Every structure is written in structure tokens, then in C-alpha cells.
Amino acid sequence: MLASAAVRARAEQVFLFRSVDSIRPKGFAEAIEVSELRSELAQANEAEIAMCRRWDEVFTLIAKDGAVETTLARLTGFLLDYPADGIAQFHARRLRAAAQNPGEAA
């Protein structure tokens, strides 16, 4: 389940979230950040919490739109530990495409 940044801010004391992407829905002037609702915080184990925190650190680098090589290195490290993570795979594909075609938007 995806949630807006506003929902996440109101509910993150009770639920565990992780960042997914910034999107611009049709009719919106500004992009909004969306997050994945992972579980109730009280039900989340330490490994799940650690994974979400680690992902949000990687996502912060992605969102900064900075050094692609550094970001890809951190993202690759994340994928070594969580190889089936679809969100990380999506961002890795997008960053690799941006690195190969620096003049095109990812």
C-alpha cells in the first residue's frame, strides 16, 4: 500500500513506512513523495525496521539527484543484502540508464 508524505507524517508513530519515489500525478503541479506502508510498528521486527531505515538512507541519495556512481554503489550494496527488493531494483535500473545516457531524464 502506498501513502503520501502527509499520511506518512501523521501515521509514522504507529506504522512502519519506507520511501518509494517522488511522482507527479495528473493534475498536480508539484511532485509528491510516496511511501510504502510495511506494517504496524509494534509488529515489525528489528530486521524489518533496519531494512527500512537502510533503504531510506539509500533513497535520500537517490532523491538528491547527485553523484550517480556513489548512489549506485550504495544501491548495489543494498541489493546484495535484499536481492529481491522490487523498489530497489526499479531505482537501480533507472540510475543505470541515467548513467549510460546522462543527457536524458531518468
Provide a descriptive summary of the structure in words:
With 106 residues, the protein is of the alpha+beta class. The chain is 52% helix and 20% strand. The chain contains 4 helices and 3 strands. It has a 3-stranded antiparallel β-sheet with strand order 1-3-2. The longest helix has 19 residues, at 46-64. It is flat, with a radius of gyration of 14 Å.
**How many angstroms separate the termini?**
24 Å
Question: Structural class of the secondary structure composition?
Answer: alpha+beta
Count of DSSP-assigned helices: 4
What order do the strands of the largest sheet run in, or round the barrel if closed?
A: 1-3-2
Weakly predicted, low-confidence segments: none
- Can you give the mean pLDDT? 91
The percentage of residues in β strands lies in 15-25%
Number of strands: 3
Question: Can you give the helix content as a percent range?
Answer: 40-55%
Order of helices and strands: EHEEHHH
Question: What would you call the shape?
Answer: flat
Main sheet summary: 3 strands, antiparallel
Short description:
The chain is an alpha+beta fold. The protein contains four helices and three strands.
Helix and strand arrangement:
Layout: E1 2-4, H1 5-11, E2 15-23, E3 32-40, H2 46-64, H3 68-81, H4 86-100
Helix pairs in contact: 2-3, 3-4
List keywords for this structure.
4 helices, alpha+beta, 20% strand, 3-stranded antiparallel beta sheet, single chain
